[in-house]
Hints:
Chain A has helices at about 5-10, 15-50, 75-80, 180-190, 190-205, 215-225, 245-255, 260-270, 275-305, 305-315, 320-350, 360-385; strands at about 55-60, 70-75, 85-100, 105-115, 125, 135-140, 150-155, 155-165, 175-180, 230, 230-235, 255-260. By secondary structure, chain A is α+β, with helices and mostly antiparallel strands. Chain B is built from six helices and ten strands, in the order E-E-E-H-E-E-H-E-H-H-H-E-H-E-E-E.
Amino acid sequence: MINLAGRDIRHHGSRYIFTGMGLGLLIALTLSMAGIYRGLVDDGKAIIDNSGADIWVVQQGTLGPYAEPSALHDDIYRSLRALPGVADTGNVTYQTMQVRSAGKDVRVMVTGIEPNAPGTPLYLVSGRPIIRGHYEAVADVKTGFKTGDRIRLRHNEYTVVGTTRRMVSSGGDPMLFIPLRDSQEEQFVRDADAVVTDRLRLAQNPRLNPPGSPGILGAVEENQVSSHSVNAVLLRVAKGADPNAVAETVKRWKRLGAYTKEEMTDILVVKMIAVSARQIFMFLVILTLVSTAIIAFIIYTLTIGKIREIAVLKLVGASSRTIASMILQEALGLGLIGFMFGKVVATVWAPYFPKYVLLLPQDSLRGIVITMIVSALASLLGIRAALQVDPSEAIGG
Amino acid sequence: MAQTDMPAILVEGLTKRYGSGETAVDALKGIDMAVYPGEVVGLIGPSGSGKSTLLKALGAVIEPTGGRITLGGTPIYDHGWKIKDLRALRRDRIGFVFQAPYLIPFLDATDNVALIPMLAGMADAGARQRALGLLQVLDVEHRAAAHVTELSGGEQQRVAIARALANHPPIVLADEPTATLDSQRALVVMRILNGLAKQYQTAIIVVTHDEKIIPTFKRIYHIRDGKTYEEAGEGRDIG
């Protein structure tokens, strides 16, 4: 039996393909939205997976350091390291900053780390890790910085000694790693005018500058400009130790918050991006509905354009199944062309998105299944119109 | 014509009423006609006389209100015929030729013809073989691979006639098949129909008001106000 749908598609080749391509752009948008969602999740997981930590110790009662502010003294690590099951600790600070380099501003998450401790990027794509205590940096490649670049953070200049990949904040900002001491200073550094004004105010306060005790004023000033806080302490557990048990110990005995990798993933992926995910899901639903309506309209229009041929086919004995099958196959063909084009377009334009777009094969598989289902549903309108065609319409009068 | 033969088409007291009550319209008011195998009969009448309604009833696409249609000895609509029965009847026993060719534009000439036996279940190769044979009979075999848009109007009409004969139906209903053709081509079409009627013993009813071809019929049914009146035609020899 002749494949009527195939012949019709071939006959109207360019029109059919252009229609499919138009639909493909819509499908590309849908796939990209799914990719953006996956990217959000992956960004959230990347910061956890690439930190090399098993447990995040944070300020008690907070969901820090990514979801809520958290502040700890930077000497807490000593007592944490002494706990059974803890192999290594690392103080970390996080702050989002605008970094200026070679005339352009880049928004980064500046991360203060201790060399070779948890929190240090696990993989470098160029250069070397931070080995000095000051003014060295390792940048994620998405910052655009290269090894050897010199960048300015407030008053200090840093040399990029290495680059890493997939180290981004949950907001998608690429990370810039600097030594912990520098990051603590960057958090509290003030401009010269503010320093002079503060000194003047302190000096005029008789309680902080009592006559005969000049040392008090100096101590207060030093305390104001120095920081011994970190946002979290990352723990690596010893081989064979249970991270849940260690986290429980930290919470019970140290009066701190502690989250295992699974719990931190839950905070980042489920809690932090839940609203964004729902937003994207709504957009996906709307796009699917719009796609369905467009395919239905296209198939209906194509069917209406063939009313006379359909009437002739019915008159000469073609069954309703033959005609419905032709329209269904054309709708599926349109969906397939649209999906293939959409997949190519989504893949091509994904790297140009400012945020990470992750196109997973399983999403493509789901996408093609949904496209085929949507196409089949959309063809119902055209099939209904075709089945209502009276074969007597082929006979004039 | 062998009047002793069983008619391929026998119509007795056929009526068709559209609507009901005061707005009812009687399109056919008691049609009687008989067409025999191998015969080409003209059905002539002014617009609104009921030609198309009669053709649709004969073509098993509308159910008459009363009377009887017998095709090759089998009364249709009599025994609770279902849509699929009527579809099979149209497919296997009736060929249609329209005013315009109405070929399927996305098929080539061969497949336009071969589609009909394929719909009846014939294997693709056999159906195409038969189609090529018919195109040869109609002298368009050299255009077998051409798409509809590449065919001239006359070639399209020949392919349409080949399509009507594709399942070797005992009956062909032709609805103004020469309306869009000039005199010369119209007579060629009539010559072809007469030739095929004899060759395949097909009963052909040609609905027309084309003055050019009326003299070619040996027998004519005039239809006026829903009734038929039979008369002998000139039966002019067209070769």
